[in-house]
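Tokens as discussed.
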């Protein structure tokens, strides 16, 4: 292996918006994510709408049946 071309592999904390944090190692110092295994609907079985910029409302308006 060549010297000086590999990134530094340091301990880091991955933190989620739900408050969960995971300690691991990575080439980045701190990582912030919006969805993790603690709050993702697939793992929890609960539907939580994470709407950014009104996408859910736009989808509902577009595909709901007109009465």
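Sequence:
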């Amino acid at each position: 292996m060549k010297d000086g071309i590999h990134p530094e592999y340091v301990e880091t904390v991955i933190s989620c918006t739900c408050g969960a944090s995971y300690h691991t190692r990575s080439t980045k110092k701190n990582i912030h994510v919006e969805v993790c295994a603690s709050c993702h609907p697939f793992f929890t079985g609960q539907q939580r709408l994470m709407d950014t910029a009104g996408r859910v409302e736009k989808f509902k308006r577009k595909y709901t049946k007109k009465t």
